[in-house]
Structure formats: C-alpha cells, structure tokens
Amino acid sequence: MSSDAEQIVGLYERHARVWDEERGRTLFERRWLDSFERLLPSGGAILDLGCGSGEPIARHFIERGFAVTGVDTAPSLIALCQARFPGQDWHVADMRTLSLGRRFQGLVAWDSFFHLTHDDQRRMFPLFRAYAAAGAALIFTSGPSHGEAIGSFGGEPLYHASLDPAEYRALLEENGFDVVDHVAEDPECGGHTIWLAQAR
C-alpha cells in the first residue's frame, strides 16, 4: 500500500479543481478549531500543513486575524490560495521535508497527515516539535486505530494510514506535547478522529 501513498501528491494536483469544488465550506470542524484557537495568542502565526485550496480552514483563521503560512504539495491548490489570500504566505512543499527556519504558535494538519505512511507519520513528530514555539497548539486528524485504508477520489486510489492511539500519545509525549483533547470518530465532526495537543 505504500506505493499508493506516493501517488497522493500527483492525485491532488490532477484533481485540484474538483477537490476545491467538492470541499465543504460549512465548517463542521468549528468546535475543534475554536478549541485550538483558545490555545493561541491573538494574531499568532499558524502553519497549515496540507492546506489544500485554503478553504475553509485557512480562511477561517485568516478572518479571525491570524497570520497563516500554508503548505501543500499540489501547485494548483497553492495557486488558489495565493489568488484568494495574497497577503498570506503559501508554499508548494512536502511537509516531510519542509524547511522554513521559523516557529509558529499553531500547527494544523487537518485531513492531510493521515495520507502519510506509518513511518512518515512517526518522523513528523520531531518536525512538529521543531516548528512549535513555546506553548504552541497542534491539531491533526488520524484514523481511530492502527492500520491502512484505501479510499477513492477522482477514480484513483486514495491512501490513508493511522497509528495506534497509544503510539500517538507516546510520540506526542516524547516530542514535548501534552494531549489537551482527543476524540475518536467524533459524531459531531463528521466521524473524524481528532487530536489537540500543546507544546510544553
């Protein structure tokens, strides 16, 4: 299945317009985004890893007065971000090899981090730590249990993976984050499994 994981970059580029058109804007994520925001200083800097087209999540934070740096591997999605929000900072880059040389008060990996293989997910936690300012908030989505799953988008395989919840907790702890909240398959958030943590 790891070969399917390597196809993610091209898949989102090929189907960027369709993904943008189909991405819901209702902000069913709002309760979690509000909890994340309460951990941030007013006007703080947020790093959005896998920002897509910038809607609705980056838009939500921009409209709330935060400075957003968005990263995505799909040039077409970053082009949409740049057109919609030219005052923010957008990068075509892979979160696994990103090098920005600065820290952020908030880190977001919503519906993006779970496209990485198990080992790549493990390697992300030191990177989360490297990008986190003191007391930074981190929010990401995962699966509810260890495994891999193949969905479909645009008629192509769409890879997902998850570690065991105990391993996520251990990785957060090892890298200086405390779990603030965690819900598996939250029925109030479209069945998403969400982790909210804060750097010590």
UniProtKB/TrEMBL annotation:
Which keywords does UniProt give here?
Answer: Methyltransferase, Transferase
Q: Give the Methyltransferase domain ranges.
A: 46-126
Would I find Methyltransferase among this entry's keywords?
yes
Q: Which Gene Ontology biological process is one annotated for this entry?
A: methylation
List, alphabetically, the InterPro entries matched.
Methyltransf_25 (IPR041698), SAM-dependent_MTases_sf (IPR029063)
Q: Which GO terms describe its molecular function?
A: methyltransferase activity
The entry's protein name is Methyltransferase domain-containing protein
**Provenance organism:** Bosea lathyri
